[in-house]
Amino acid sequence: MKAVILSAGQGKRLLPLTADRPKCILPVRGQTMIEWQIEELVKSGIDRVTVVLGYCADKVEQVLRRRYGSDKVKTIYNPAYAVSDNLVSCWVASDEMSSDFILLNGDTLFEAAVVKRLLDTDSQPVTVVVSHKSQYDDDDMKVELDGRRLVRIGKDLLPDQVNAESIGMILFRDQGPVLFRNALEKALRDPSSKRKWYLSVIDKLAQTMPVLTCSINGLQWCEVDYPADLQLAVDVVSACDGSSKGGADEDTCRIAEVNLL
Fold it and tell me: Which of 26, 43, 124, 209 is the most buried (most CB within 10 A)?
């Protein structure tokens, strides 16, 4: 099984932390975020990882080469990262989507149990990982459900439509990879799609075929968008390595505190 990680963006909402490096290589308890992702994927049986890079790509490649060598993790460069959103990053990696794979946002941290639960679901072409909570904010990638079936997905869903949120992880199996690649190609014929999320493609697919979901309530995960999210990241990776909860790396915390003032 392969995983494709989308890590082309800078993470401007984390400035000044990301002034000279993308957020995927911010340190959390002694490792960068992308290292935590890859380690948990490997624990889950994922044996191939491709990372789509953009901002400060050379710095990310240095981290990956030092940790994994040049043959264990493949990188692909998205030259349009500064003027496009992650739908384009998906298309740049479309050659990696010829067989079953997991698509993962570069700012989602998770414990291996999340991936294992996803892989244990019934085989369906497209399975979106979701989590449930009592309230959802404007920044959440909200999901409307009919049982396990995904009806709509997007940030602009009305409150009475929302049943869950996407955590930024999707499994494509069987015909799923081909269907997704074809939908990406069709979407990119519209110039406006360059500024869209790939989940807009999933939203359209859900109107024409069953898109299932996998709930990971009770398991550890978080999305890192803002400095305040770094403590959540610490809690998640502490669960990953079985250590007690503690602080993020000292330099990360110090800059984050300044940014919150």
Answer: 26
